[in-house]
Amino acid sequence: MRANYRMQRLFVPNDLAEGVEIEPSAQQSHYLLNVLRLAEGAEVLVFNGRDGEWAAAVGAKTKKSVRLTVRAVQRPQPALPDLLYCFAPLKQGRLDYLVQKAVEMGAGVLQPVITRHTQVAKPGLDRLRANVVEAAEQCGILAVPEVRDCEKLERLLGAWDPERRLIFCDEDASTNNPLPALQAVTEKKLGLLVGPEGGFSDDERRMLRALPFVTAIPLGPRILRADTAAVAALAVIQATAGDW
What we know:
With 244 residues, this protein is of the alpha/beta class.
């Protein structure tokens, strides 16, 4: 069932069921009261990543807060997409964009990975998670992706599930067309690894290519920035081997 894009959507931590009363955060209350100027009885959509999506009505209001009463379920809770997205953290603006687009494109888990040329060794995980929630609110997504703690590339690969095919974007690939390699992928469980702006080191590339669960793909004849490469790779994977 597709999302209702005519109604405002809010992510809330509360358990959701008919009759439950919710007090949104101060920022959410300000938005409902002073930006949207919703009247008492007006409805919004709420979700928590666990209980599906519900309609909720604006109830008691003060100058700074509003209460919502949960009414009826609108969409059931879907399963989290089984696509593990691994990425080298970028500088803040580009990292915000990368995370938002990964959520929109169907990533189920976001895994920051530290490589030799990674620009940002310790990204702000709280900010990453806030970007995930914002993207889910805007795009009608109910299964909110998990953001994991950073891992070094070697440790990530050492603990990798060999039944999950890991696709990595190889800027040194000998061809420009990713489709033949992706069309040969038969596994249902997929991971994607996108490197930093400086690319993978030669040692990292050799290590990846030597692993039996890894498939290397090119992304066309042009060199893409890391955030652009992430969107391009997610699109082509979803179209050929994913949920499109």
